[in-house]
Amino acid sequence: MTVACTDFLDKKPDIKLVIPKTLHDADLLLNDYGTLNSNYPTFGEIGTDDYYLTKQRWDAISNYDQRMAYTWSDEPYIDAMQWQRPYKVVYIANQVITILSKLPQQGNQEVDYRRAWGAAHFYRAFAFHQLTELYCPAYQKTTGTKELGIPIRLDPGVDEKSHRATLEQTFAQIIGDYKTAVRFLPLIEPVKSRPHKASAYAALARVYLYMGDFEQAYSYADSCIQLKPDLLDFNKLNVNGNNPMTRFNVEVLFPALATGATPMAATTALIDTILYASYSDGDLRKRAFFKPNSNPVDSRYYKGSYDQSNTLFFGITTSEVYLIKAEAATRLGKLADARGTINMLLQSRWDKNSSYVSISESDGDRLLQLILDERRKELVFRGRRWSDLKRLNLEPRFQTTLKRVVGDKSYALPPNDLRYAYRISETVLELSGIQQNER
User: Fold this and answer.
1) Most C-beta atoms within 10 A of its C-beta, which of 16, 174, 191, 230?
2) Are 306 and 249 in contact (CB under 8 A)?
3) Rounded distance between C-alpha atoms, residue 94 and residue 104, angstroms
4) Where, in residue numbers, are the TPR repeats (predicted)?
5) pTM higher than 0.70 for the full model?
6) DSSP for 327-380, written as a single string
7) Domains plus CATH for the chain?
8) Do the Cβ atoms of 217 and 209 come closer than 8 Å?
9) What is the pLDDT of residues 244-266, one digit of tens each?
């Protein structure tokens, strides 16, 4: 028996047997939830104003890069995972696209082929956009051809030297990939972790809102809602429970989870007191999203992840799409449409035992501010605040100076500061030779 085992182990496998090359292989690659739907960058969320840390909590953070990210300290970063994990998603997506490009589209597997082709382009675009929001300046059409974007890797080869595209080229690739996803993804996706057509419409709405193209943001948000209008009724949730939102609930269009980060941990991050006070007592989100904490006295933790766990949810939901449509409609002068959209969302969040007073604001500027306030309250700890700060800082009326106090030291991040484009890890720079962000 020992000899037989030794003989078996000595035999070298045929390398051709382990190279993915079939539609089934491509489908298996797309089922890697741990890679494709998880571990997206948290540095942006670490830098937001939705929470605070006491000095004791800040001192207890062992990861030096995460401590520096909290205070926007512009020092070299070592942690390469924030960069590498999304590019692993890109690598797998490119593997799938390469496999499928060598296979026929016709035949009895055409439906599965189209589904996989669309999903691969969606995942690649999602990863590219996550990287762009963290490592690039806010998009402006007038400067997009001059600003640095990210390396656009479109094949699974690892030997090709990386170069940063322009920000304009980066967004063109993201939009192109998402539009391919819209064309090929099915209306109904049986695997809950995978994207479908409404997911791609929502993703395009998210990207166009970030770019300030409100016509396109409105159009794609509306298309998504036409296909997937579902909203959670918070009256049917156990809002006092530890994890009120169930995983893959009716609002989830695409599930994506953040990588772990100590500053954002469930029993570390303390909710900003002004933000918490902005929720009305009849707003069930006040109980569904937060739980009380006694140290410090009268502080709050976050508990509202759509993953039904302590992992932060950075995916896309219908609630976000309603907010995109409402904001875009307001900016386009469609005030009645905007009011109807935001009221539909808020009614689903309101305690049935407390009368909901519909938003009836007729002044466009005031209505826009109301909608932006609701956007922050709805999407707290959802990976949206950092990108919202960046895009809104381009408008003087919405500019925000972020401030931190850690012990006897104060820190500030002014609007449009270069630090809104995080430094790329020195490890990544050494390995790739790409250009660091301007400082």
Assistant:
1) 174
2) yes
3) 17
4) 198-231
5) yes
6) HHHHHTT-HHHHHHHHHHHHHHHB-TTS---------HHHHHHHHHHHHHHHTT
7) 21-432 (1.25.40.390)
8) yes
9) 999 999 999 999 999 999 999 99
